[in-house]
Amino acid sequence: MLRTPKLDLAAGQRFRAPDGIVWEVLGPIRTNGGRPHVALVKLDDRLTKKVVSVDALYDKRLFSIVE
Hints:
Number of domains: 1
Order of helices and strands: EEEEEEHE
CATH class: Mainly Beta
Helix content: under 10%
CATH topology: SH3 type barrels
Number of strands: 7
Distance between the termini: 18 Å
Strand content: over 45%
Largest sheet: 5 strands, antiparallel
Structural class: mainly beta
Radius of gyration: 11 Å
């Protein structure tokens, strides 16, 4: 579990992008910048992955939490 100032972020947690794509958190990723990042996998295509900052993940313009 990645502990952030905002919320606890766990592997398996899901987020929806504005285009309707649902992404699932794989886990934390180390980067050179010092800001926390996570790896995401596309829910309907497990071969598509990306890395985003935790700040971007909680930006309501970019993602919303899937309950």
